[in-house]
Amino acid sequence: MNDNKIIETHPAENTPEWFQHHFTDSEQQQESAKLGMWVFLLTEVLFFGGLFCAYAIYRAWHPEMFYNAHKALDWRMGGLNTIVLIISSVTMALSIRSFQLNQQKQGLWLLVVTLACAVTFMVVKYFEYAHKFHVGQLPGKFYHFTGIEGTNPHIFFSVYFLMTGLHGIHVLAGMGVITWLILRAKRGHFGPDYYTPVEVTGLYWHLVDMVWIFLFPLFYLIG
Amino acid sequence: MTENKFNHHHHILPLKVYLGIGSALIFLTVVTVAVAQLHLGQFNLVVALGIAVLKATLVGLFFMHLKYDNKIFGVIFLSSLCFLGIFIIITMSDTLRRGDIYPEVGTPIISKSAIYDNMPQDSTHEGEEHHGEATGGH
Hints:
Chain A has 6 helices and no strands.
């Protein structure tokens, strides 16, 4: 099909360090990596999906309570976090683009900015959680706040902490991986021929952004 | 550079596409917040989720490159959404119809969790089951 992709026997010294020899060529290697990440993202959709289903059930059972309880959340902090994650997605995508264009320093700095956005997100989240812990808006049996009308407001906070907590864990994991990418980028591992680790991390990061895009209106903006 | 098996280069999106999509996402976030201030009843949820789906589509097509990549990736992602859809639709079509034949099963058995038994009663609670009142079914 493609004349360039001849199967050759290459002596090991002539091949780039990142090339894995069980692949025919770099394109197949990159496509395989992306395929693996997309299948993983499929499992992540189902992972969060189970919790979205729980949200749907509890909200259907207690619509007024969800409305009352959601007022305890600050939509400005949620909105800020949404903007922060969107910006981090832009910088992540631009970082990949920089490596594609052999602008390695720019690619590195864009990764640093992405990481900074992730840190900002977690700091805002820390303030949100700290306030809730302080007033007793805790999940499940630990709930001891008395200012919310409706049946069983602890249910709202159970779902809230489970979903935003799981999302926060994913942000932390992403921060770890991006830090590793920064270290590799500093050593010059990435360029137009090879930027696959940055690309698959980008795919993961965009999914984390996507999940928050749904979490924000469902928790902070109940009409 | 003649192309060999190590330097296949892929489609690179122009900078303004990334910045444009990013701006659109921020704009749609503002729209979501603004519409949430309006009282549209049940429609609030539909609009909010609709905008969220649009934002997610933009992220998927452009940031995640689904528009320009091998179609199998899009198929994989769409299939995950299909199965999630089946999961939620079937679950909700059960849970929302529980009271259709026997009203008793339409609501949770215990209307107020036991964790509230030792909490001070808040004066804003209206119509709540009061602790100690003899009512049936608890």
